[in-house]
Amino acid sequence: MPGNIKEASFDALVIGGGIAGGEAALNLANNGFSVLLVEKDLSIGGKMILLSKVFPTLDCSACITTPKVSEISRHPGIKIFTRSEVTHIVKRGEKLFEVDITKKPRYVAEEDCTGCQLCETACPVIVPDQYQYDLVGRKAAFIPFSIASPRVAAIDIENCTLCGACEKACPPQCIDFTQKEEEYIVRVKAIIIATGFNLFDPLLIPRFGFGIFKNVITSMQMERQLAPTRPFNTILRPGDGKVPCKIAYVLCTGSRDATVGNPICSQICCMYSIKQAQLLMGALPMADVTIYYINIRSFGKGFEEFYEQAKGMGVNFIKGKIGKITENEKGDLILRYEDINENRLKETEHDLVVLSVGSIANHDAAAWFSDGELKLDPFNFIYQPDSLASPAKTSLGGVFVAGTASGPMDIPDSILSAGAASAEAISYLIRQ
Amino acid sequence: MPGISIKSARILVFSTEKISDPAIDMAGLLKLHYPPTVYTITVPCSSSIKPKWILRAYEKGFDGVFIAADGSDCPYGETCTEKTGKLVQRTHEIMKEKNIEPARLKMAAICSVCSESFVKQMKNFNEYLLKNIS
Amino acid sequence: MAIIDPKFGKKLKKYGAYEFDACYNCGSCTAVCSLSTEEDSFPREMVRFSVLGMKDDIKSSLKPWLCYYCGECTTYCPQTANPGELMMSLRRWLITIYDWTGLSGLLYKYWLVSLFAFLLAAAGVLVFGYYNDYNLESLMHYGHLFEMMAIAGVFAFILLPNIIRMWYFVILKPGLKISLITYIKDFKELLIHMFTQKRTLGCDDSVRRWFEHFILVISYLTLLFVTVFLNWFSTQYLFVNILGYVVSAVIVIVTIDFIIDRIRKKKEISKFSQPSDWLFVIWLSLMGFTAMAVRVLIDTGLLEKNVWLYLIHLIILVQWALIIVPFGKWTHFLYRSFAMYFAKLKAG
Amino acid sequence: MNTKIGVYICHCGGNISDYVDVEKVKQAVEHEEGVMVAKTTIFACGDANQQEMVDDIQKNKLDSVVVASCSPKLHLATFQAVAERAGLNKYNYVHANIREQVSWAHSDNKPGATDKAIKIVRSAIARVRVAEPLESFSINAKKAVAVIGGGIAGMKAAIELSSMGCPVTLIEREHFVGGHTAQWDFLFTSNETGKELVTRLYNEVAARENIKLYTGAEIMSQTGSIGDFRLKIKITPRYIKEKCHKGNLQKAIEACPVDVPDEFNFGITQRKAIFHNFPSEYPQIPVIDIKNCTRCGKCEAICESIDFSQKEETLEIHVGSVLVAVGFDPYTPAEGEFGYGQLENVITLPQFKRIIDLNDRSLVYKGKKIRDIAYVYCVGSRQPEGDNKYCSRYCCTSVIHAAIQVKKKFSHINNYHFTRGIRTYGKQELLYNDSLKAGDIYLQSYEDDPPVVFSENGKTKVKINDILTGKKEMSVEADLVVLVTGMVPRENKALNTLLKIPRGRDNFYNEIHMKLRPVETVIDGITICGACQGPKNITESANSALSAATKSYSYISRGELSLEPVIAKIDEEKCTWCGLCAEVCPYNAIQKGKSGTKEIAVINDPVCKGCGMCLPVCPYDAIELNSYTNREIENMIDALAG
User: Fold this and answer.
1) What is the mean pLDDT of residues D470-475?
2) Taking residues D246-259, what's their average pLDDT?
3) Which among A171, A305, A421 has CB closest to D14?
4) What is the DSSP string of C311-346?
5) Which residue among C24, C44, C76 places its CB closest to the CB of A338?
6) Highest-confidence range of A42-56, D71-85, D390-404, by mean pLDDT?
7) In percent, how much of chain C has pLDDT > 90?
8) pLDDT tens across D538-585, in order?
9) Is there a shared CATH topology between the A8-103+181-196+362-430 domain and the A200-358 domain?
């Protein structure tokens, strides 16, 4: 139905509405360029907006993200497409890219929804809430999370029973089941890819028991339990709702591990685990937190001091990678490892195990371009041909990379990398 | 209807735009309840509150004044806590002179996500004021 | 103060260990190993000793023998440092260290020496046959005599001294004090492990492997007994004759299965094969096969006309008894059993 | 005084109206003084209502507006924009929060909530009644940037700014650009050498007409503020006009009788008083080190370009923003720290890198052939006791890379790493793997039990209680001990005093906020990047340099800066200049000034951030903050109390 394809032009396209994409979009827009920000999820803010606090300053992640997010969404120079996916990108010439974008329906008129959540109350369907990393349920008519931007409802059509209860409940009557996918062809002069990373799927390491033992959770699930917009009002283990008192962190779950195809270090897990340990010590003063590690990589500004602080607070650090995890009849978990400092095998019981999952590449981007125009590195991160002098440049002129799309990074590094990508994009746009 | 018959103290809260205000907002978002006679005036930084404003509140009938300070999160620098502390101290002195119970002025750091702590503070302060002042 | 010797690691590579220096000491191997215990934690410690070249510590350790190579450490090693194969290489290296003659070392390190030794043994048999005019009776007579002498000689001059050396390295030199009563009391440990290899069962998925190995060892020992002491090739007893057939058939079937595994390289344990491993299984297989063939010809009365077959059997036998048994992989059978015995002694 | 006020009370689709009787609120406030229009609306933020507000304002000539709805965090800007669309000043708009702080917080007490909502709306009306229109003021911003520091970060930032069409003055203290990168051979992640990278960037810099590079230049003074900085620069001459004729330079250098330690090689070699760093150094003109020159005149006789008459120059530049990229110094171990300065074969990592570069066929140091090299990690970093508690981030990767290079370049090298836990984060992990597979030996000690470097029978040895081997004491006899030194902030007292950029516990320059404003400093208009901000590798420096370039550029790209009018103002009559306000101001925005003959405090408007810290300290109540004036606050207090 070519007649329905909409066309638009912008100076720059930023793909990915996480913290890196958002920062890049703001930099461009603040310097007078028109930006289209495409986000495949329902809300911008990426993973950062869902985090609890951030290391090493322990300030609230949402408090840093939400002002940025609202600045982005209010900026007159930035057009945001949420729930939209880039499908194809062709470089037609110098400073001319043609980008096909599919805007998927959310079945709610975005402009009219006030975020009153009455549809959510009315909806009878309950499914696992992906924004709480499946810790709790949500409705099929739902607002992704309380600080989502746009804070607008959406209908999860795959799980919706089309009962119409939400339609009846909605005061401004903005629920619209007739919405269709919209196709756009967008012409832009420059592109910034900020597609971020994926979390390692711990199901790939069955001996750690994720998905088998209920009290083995991922670090992102713990992150949600600690966040201000947390699902429960305290920390509990999923198996029986008990407040845990002996918590273990399994570092390098899916990182520095050639057997799962990811031999590189994810760069963030040590620090976020230390941060969570500190927050847990605060939330559960009686709890015992142990971090099992190979090497602690607290390398950034203030990180080493943060690590020392955790040791001072009484977080246990044991050098030794967990070999396997088994469960006893109480639902507690037995961790088997070699305590390297003592040079001997040990087994220790914990009532909650947090797998510190690594970051792996999100290689969506390569498929948008034809014939390998956009090169990836051996780990499927976007290849940086001039990583020393121009880290934001990719193998294709006019296409820049920001944040963790080019490799593991923490938040400050992602933001700096986004600054670099926007600098390169701005000078590319200005240059004759 | 609960709540109507229960009398609550009138509390004026000075909160800050970037730090404690979001926490108070979030208390509402999380439907955490506190006495409805708590009113908020927003200022840029807790160290910018003039003692005479506080005194005026008592004059006009407020039972208590609560300063929701920035603490170390203040965007205007770390000296904020110390400066706010000083102005509270000074106000306490004037209050003594004027025979106003100094405990009617309270200060505590409320970080941008300290909703629970804010609500707790309000409840305790309210109880205290009801018991000791009016 | 231990001195670091990086050359040792390079030397160890000749025994089949290639990747172990990639180890970053996470301890996964020790943690996934089902035989590793709090008292005896391995293989990481052995990997570490190997990287640093701490020969004396390896020499005095029984841990290489406590490993039965299920391969899980290798499967889960995040650095693909192959600790399982390192343990295997250490066993090879230890065999050469225990061997007072030093010949094991030559055979392990230089395949040309092995080839030469095998050819020499074959030539010796042929020369011997020539001087006996390829007379079957005489050949079989001397063959049987050789079997008995070889067993006695190899045991007395090679294996026994080597076991004593092993005892010296792991018990005496580290200064362990063990009473005679303990030696006597724990002796059953040696026999149990020698005849059952039950420790293999501790490896995770190894019932089949243990069973194959178990019946192979029993069949091998029975075949030895049947041929040497019951003189299978000359016996008139039907039971003994059938027993000989059964055990040699078992040997052939099991070894062929092992060879197929080594060719397929699907299991961790059969992925990396050194010449010594190939020689061991193939020669054992040939032993069983040729012995059976010889007896078939005897039973059909065709051996007189096919003396060459007996000669081939004899060549295999001589190579087996003089090279593989004293200096090759055969000895692991002995050292493993003694290692379990010594471990029990050390544990007190 | 505003007398035509419009008040809009939002239902928020039930979010408010379910708990607050909005009609009652409307009735309670519609007769307040000055209220001309009072309405309730289902969705105040909806397009339809926004249009209605614009119409109301224009039709009734309203002079101010109050909307009572959700938190101002959500929609303050929305309604300010509505006010502006209707031709009102946005400071004549006041937002009342009756959702988060009323209907939701008191959903358990509807009458209480309604009562509170009434008071809040009244206080907003009372405030808007005395609200004054404010104009955000704009100042001219000079469209030029000064970049201080000509290392990788500085050059990269300069190039990017120049690409954005912004003139740049690049100021380098040394006589050659490239910083420490120029001293390195092969760099990690590429097969490029440090020299090649510096050459590449220098050629870019030189090709740009809008970059003016000064070497041997230092900042003498700095005045002004964002948009309008004036820097005085002192430029020391090279005493050489241009390149000597072919070959003559080498002769002139050879003729020089002076020998001083060569900083470029970290003192492991000597240089002359006339010198250059390496064949492709930039700018490609040698320098006479005038401090050490004896003026013997021998070089002058050989090379016609030498010119001792060159004079020190000072010049003033005018820029809108200053970008600081002054880099780091390698940590210098103390005398005796791991044998440094006492054992002759104990050197630092930077020295080691130079030795690899300077040797060709075999690795020789002080006449001795090197085979066994021990690397002692975390020297000057992660010190449990001492100043440098931080991790220097780059050193693990850097030393492992050097160890791999030295094995590649020379034969029979054995590497022994005495570490405190390897931190090859991210993709750098691969390098660690390579080094392990190349047979490098790694040992590890506890934080409080570092390795010991000692001399025994004339041999240098390193011993360690290796936690990877059950704490066994292990030792190595080393031909060379390399102390893996971290980064410390570059010694630059003068600049620190001039720019007043705050520094952190680690002594590096501090950004405002690591995540929100990672390259900005509390001094508006001054950005920081590269290793002067904290240890960074080259890629990370480049990223921060580009970020800082973007930020500096956005300050000035429009040629003018618009500043928020919410700033302090002085009541000249009341003020007696006691100086208390100036003392508490964290931004130095208050100075002594004059009104006629009277000494008073004067606010430097562009510098004031509007925090209000000066308000309560004034003994005469002579300071007010725009939009938080006494009248506004007191009106609100009165209304809330009422």
Assistant:
1) 92
2) 86
3) A171
4) HHHHHHHHHIIIIIHHHSGGGHHHHHHHHHHHHHHH
5) C44
6) D390-404
7) 67
8) 999 999 999 999 999 999 998 888 888 999 999 999 999 999 999 999
9) yes
User: Side chain identity at D262, as an amino acid letter?
Assistant: D
Closest CA to D45 of A74, A346, C57, C45: A74
* % of chain B exceeding 70 in pLDDT: 92
Task: Name the closest residue on chain D to residue B65, using Cα atoms.
Answer: D637
At A67, the pLDDT band (50, 70, 90 cuts) reads: low
Are C22 and D422 within 8 A, CB to CB?
no
- Distance, first Cα to last Cα, chain C: 28
Q: What is the mean pLDDT of residues A205-233?
A: 92
Closest residue, chain A, to D514 (C-alpha): A412
Question: Could you state, in order of their start, the residue ranges of all structural domains in chain A?
Answer: 8-103+181-196+362-430, 105-178, 200-358
- At A178, the amino acid letter reads T
A200-358 CATH: 3.50.50.60
If interface means Cβ-Cβ distance under 8 Å, which residues of chain A face chain B?
Answer: 59-60, 62-63, 146, 228
Asked if A345 reaches chain C (Cβ–Cβ under 8 Å), the answer is yes
- List, in order of start, the domains of chain D with CATH numbers: 5-134 (3.40.50), 145-236+312-327+490-556 (3.50.50.60), 248-302 (no CATH), 330-487 (3.50.50.60), 564-626 (3.30.70.20)
Q: Establish how many alpha carbons lie within 13 A of residue D466's alpha carbon, considering only the half-sphere containing its beta carbon.
A: 24
Binding-face residues of D in 273-302 toward A, CB within 8 A: none
Chain A residue with CA closest to C73: the answer is: A323
b/e per residue A88-120 (b: at least 16 CB within 10 A): ebebeeebebebbbbbbbbbbbeebbbbbbbbb
Point out the least confidently predicted range of B3-17, C188-202, D28-42, D323-337. Answer: B3-17
Q: What is the mean pLDDT of residues C193-206?
A: 82
* A391 contact D CB<8A: yes
Choose among D77, D429, D543: nearest Cβ to A417.
D543
* Total domains present in chain B: 1
**Residues above pLDDT 90, as percent of chain B:** 63
Name the residue of chain B whose CA is nearest to A52's CA. Answer: B113
Question: Which residue among D439, D463, D468 places its CB closest to the CB of C9?
Answer: D439
In this structure, what CATH number is given to the domain that contains residue B38?
3.40.50.960
Instruction: Say what the pLDDT of residue B134 is.
Output: 55
Residue D189 has pLDDT above 60, yes or no: yes
Which partners does chain C have (≥3 C-beta pairs < 8 Å)? Answer: A, D
* Domain assignment present for B4: no
Q: Does the residue B2 lie in any domain?
A: no
- Report domain extents, chain C: 6-98, 106-347
Partners of C75 on chain A (C-beta within 8 Å) are 259
* pLDDT confidence tier of residue D385, bands split at 50, 70 and 90: confident
**Residue A59 or D532, more confident:** D532
Domain that holds residue B15: 11-132
Q: How far is A393 from chain D (nearest CA, A)?
A: 11
Closest CB from D414, D437, D474 relative to C52: D474
Across the interface, of C25, C26, C37, the residue whose CB is closest to A345 is C37
Q: Cβ neighbours of residue A299 under 8 Å, at least 6 residues apart?
A: D391, D393, D423, D425
Segment (H or E) for D403: helix D395-409
Q: Do the beta carbons of residue A417 and residue D521 sit within 8 Å?
A: no
CATH top class, domain A105-178: alpha beta
Residue labelled with tokens 């950034």: A300
Q: Which D positions 553-592 lie with beta carbon below 8 A of chain A?
A: 553-554, 557-558
CATH number given to A8-103+181-196+362-430: 3.50.50.60
Which of the residues D474, D477, D479 would you substitute to probe the C interface, choosing the one with the greatest number of C C-beta atoms within 10 Å?
D474
Confirm whether B104 is domain-assigned: yes
- Spell out the long-range contacts of D47-55 with Cβ–Cβ below 8 A and sequence spacing 24 or more: D47/A111, D49/D8, D50/D78, D50/D82, D53/D6, D53/D8, D53/D79, D53/D82, D53/D86, D54/D82, D54/D85, D54/D86
Mean pLDDT throughout C215-243? Answer: 90
> C61 touching A, CB under 8 A?
no
Amino acid in position D338: F
Q: How far is D607 from chain B (nearest CA, A)?
A: 13
Is B106 inside any structural domain? yes
pLDDT of amino acid A242? 94
pLDDT, tens digit (0-9, with 9 covering 90-100), for C108-154: 888 899 899 999 999 999 999 999 888 888 888 998 999 899 999 99
Q: Do B49 and D621 touch (CB under 8 A)?
A: no
